[in-house]
Amino acid sequence: MQDDRWEQGSDFHLSLESGGTPYPWTPLPHTLWGTGRDALRALVAWGRDKHGWRRLLVPSYFCQEVIVPIQREITVGVYEHAPTSKSTARVVARATDIVLVASMFGMPTAPIVSGAAAVVEDLSHDPTGPRASHSTAAYAFASLRKTLPLPDGGVVWSPRGLNVPPELPVTGDHASAVLDRLSAMTLKAHYLAGQPIAREEIRRLAKRGEDVIGLGDTSGISPFSRSRLATLPAGPWRAARETNLAAFVEALGELAGLTLLEAPYAATLVFDKPTDRDRMRAALIAARIYPAVLWSLDDPVVDGIPEADVDLSRRILSIHCDYRYAPSDMVRVADVIRGVARAL
User: Fold this and answer.
1) What is the CATH number of domain 30-157?
2) Could you state, in order of their start, the residue ranges of all structural domains in the chain?
3) How many CB atoms lie within 10 A of CB 262?
């Protein structure tokens, strides 16, 4: 697809659409943060000091970049669970543990937790979906910039109405990263509108912001994203994602050597062989369609990740299908994938 909306990475361009959405956390105790990492980090640090939490247990298939700043606050361990797991995960936890349940790619998951540990749900991949609205976890959090056109943003809330960590101010490093990301988003919107904006400058600003955001001290949310969040038509945008994904699924059909996860976040393909995944990824990039790898586990920062999960991370590929695209776009992407798959 010769279309710069599919520019490398998942960064959105700035959208001025508005409408407002009743987010699942708005009637509940909640606080806003700079990123999803900041939200989780603030929660575990607060729980460590207030409730005596000593260990965070995360699924074995989980973003390692998120774990890095969390390890500054608390010990992190894993329990075996991946998006392709066929059985229900069972977690044996201590009272001083907190168990993270990740709705990977927006897929429902409900591990059986033994013990008196608190449960926190990661709803970053579908923060306005039914799972978020009906969560019964003690705590939940989400990265907002994964599904919404915001330069930053994370949220912590309690589906049970419990107290949550108080907000912190925006740090200087975070404010700088937000400025870079917001500048890149604004320039990209002008570029897509036909203005003579250098693509290299957009990429430079976006990368510089991404390289810093969420890695320094725990930060609050920027004033821009706090204000903009309340006005976004997140509900219609989620509906557009569903429509686009349905169009992709119908156009793709069944292909030998790969399967499609039933997940609302993105069109997520699982290949039988890592080499086929890599060939498909290269072919899509050559067609200026930039898929995402969620997530690489080749260099884990925490022990206990099964080799099967590492292998899965080498075979998985996600195609964005959010509101930026139309069903016809997704059909064209499916056509490209079908053509490449026949040659694998």
Assistant:
1) 3.40.640.10
2) 30-157, 172-215, 233-343
3) 12
